[in-house]
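Hey L., structure's done. Input below.
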Amino acid sequence: MTSKAFIFDLDGVIVDTAKYHYFAWRKIADQLGIDFTHEHNELLKGVSRVRSLDIILELGKVDASQEDKNKWLIQKNEDYLSYLVDMDASEILPGVLPILKFLKEQNQLIALGSASKNARPILEKTGTLTFFDAIVDGNDVTNAKPDPEVFLIAAQLLNVKPENAIVFEDSVAGIQAANIGRMTSVGIGSKSTLHEAKYIFQDFTQINTSFIEDLIR
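Output:
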C-alpha cells in the first residue's frame, strides 16, 4: 500500500486559537479607533501577521509608518501569546482526537502544516505533539498560503509524494494551497466558504473512520 501523509493546519482545525488572534487584533484596532468585527476577522484566516495588520489599517483607512507597524506587530504577538499561557487539552476542537488516534492506529504519517510561529508550544500545551511525525510552521516557510510551500515541505519531510497527501484546512487560502500542491483537500467549515475543497465537513465530529479508510486506500 502506498504511504499517505495526513497534513493538518492548526488554527481552526486542531484548536480554536482564531479567537485569541481576534482578541489581540481587536485590541490594536480599538487603540486606532477602527471597528473590527468577527466578519472582518474572517479576512485574516490563513494570512500572515504583516498582511493581517495591513488589512486592518485598510479597513480603518489608517496610514502608518513602518516603525508604528513594527510596534503593533510585536504588541499583537505578545498579547496573543499571553492568551495561550493557560491553554490545555480542553482547547482541542471536537472530534479531532479520535481521528488523530485512528490515524496512528493505522500507522499513517501525520504532519502539521501551519502559518503559526507558535505551533510547537500550542501542540505541547494541548498534549498533541506526539501525534506528529513532522511539523512545519511559520518559522520554516517564506511563502504564505495559497502558496503550497508549507504542505510541500511537510510531504517532503514524510517522504510522500504530494498526490498522496491529504490536507485538512479551514481557510480558503489553505484549501487553494492544497489544490495547487496537487493534494487532496478536506475543508473543515462551511460549504459556502470552502467550496473549492474536494471534501467538506462542518467539523471533525462529522468525519467517520470509514472516510479515513477510503483516503488511506
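Residues 200 and 208 are 13 Å apart (CA to CA). The longest strand covers residues 109-113.

-- N.
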